[in-house]
Amino acid sequence: MKIYSESISITKAFGILLMVMCHAGCPKFMHDFIYIFHMPLFFIMSGYCFKEKYLNTPKQFAIRRVKGLYVPFVKYGLLFLVFHNVLFYLNIYNGEYGFNGNVSSLYSVSDYFHHAILIVTAMSDSEQLLGGYWFLRCLFWGSLISLATIKYVKKPIVGGGNFAYPYNFNKCISNNTCAIFRN
Question: What is the DSSP string of 99-158?
Answer without folding.
Answer: BTTB------HHHHHHHHHHHHHHS----GGGGGGHHHHHHHHHHHHHHHHHHH-SS-EE
